[in-house]
Amino acid sequence: MSTATVSKPAGAGLALTRRQKAAVVLRLLLEDGLAPDLTGLTAHQQATLAQEMGQLKPISRDQLQAVVAEFVSELDDLGLSFPKGLNDALEKLSGHISEDVALALRREAGLTAQRSIWDILSEMEAEAIVPLIDGESAEICAVILSKIKVGKAADVLGLLPGARARRITFAISQTSGINPMLVDQIGDSLRVRIEAAPAQAFAKDPVARLGDILNSSAAATRDELLTGLDESDEGFASKVRKAIFTFAHITDRVSAKDIPAITREVDGDVLVRALAAGAEAYPQVVEFILENMSKRMADQLRDEMAEIGTVPAREGETAMTDVVMAIRKLEADGEIALIVEEA
After folding, report:
1. CB atoms within 10 A of CB 298
2. How many CB atoms lie within 10 A of CB 256?
3. Share of the chain residues as helix, strand and coil, in percent rounded to the nearest 5
4. Which tens digit of pLDDT belongs to each residue from 257-310?
5. Rounded to 5 degrees, what angle do the CA atoms 215, 257, 218 make?
């Protein structure tokens, strides 16, 4: 935008500089509920823009219209802008092309991903993080677990031997004065190791994949398959059992304080059918849920359960699975944290 004087009526105020006009446009966008991405600007540019916005005085409607008209005119003249280099292009294409293709292109061009290594680790399965920190000192592990999401760090600690987990936990208390440059070096080292690893066909390991499948299977099918798996590979079967989370596990894996959030996530009719179906097979689970919500809501649910009576087996299984899926969704979104079973 040029710095030409904006025509204005008497008393409308002084002509605006280019920076002031940018601050006006940004303020207008924010007022309309839009959130422009300013991370592409340098730190100095971001600071200058914030300072200009803070120093602006009220402007007239005519001035505002003139600034907007000039801004729109410049956009029209611009036509279309393109990403600045391959890295920027891949960021804009994220979600539209294969991650394997994007990673191969970055490696070929000698580029690294722009996402924070800590965000990448937080999205990985806890079982995949354990080998990355195997052999590292307790202090290095403490830094890594301090930088990733709390729930993920808890999952990783739960997979470690007790003595090692305790050493890392103590080391976390010693990280307050750590040099940020050291944290960056640890992150860079992890990024190199992750990106050097061969691409995997599956995002989850076999235990997690089979656990997800059996979570959605009917109870009779699940029990039959696990019995057969016990005979074929008892060790693998044991790991799969720990990965499974069903309606029956709610009392062991869900905190009482999270029940209200779960019942809000589940459709009312589905919750009633799940509770009615589980009342006979899993009475302790049903009571656990009802006891940890408001008395008024619990009484209402008990009345509705009595009204619908016996729920067909398949319908009940589906409803209980829906409750479990809602719990899994809340866990994935970071709204709740499941209790980690002892190894």
Report:
1. 17
2. 12
3. 70, 0, 30
4. 999 999 999 999 999 999 999 998 899 999 999 999 999 999 999 999 999 999
5. 15
Reduced to 3 states, what is the DSSP secondary structure of residue 204?
coil
Cβ atoms of 146 and 172 closer than 8 Å: yes
The dihedral formed by the CA atoms of 92, 96, 100 and 103, expressed in degrees to the nearest 10: 0
E-strand ranges in the chain read none
Tokens of residue 163, six digits: 């003595």
This prediction has a pTM of: 0.44
Which residue(s) pair with 97 in the sheet?
94
Neighbours of 4 (CB within 10 A): 11
Nearest Cα to Cα of residue 243 among 127, 120, 326, 123: 127
pLDDT digits (tens, 9 = 90+) for 27-86: 888 777 776 777 666 777 777 878 888 888 888 888 888 888 887 777 666 555 555 566
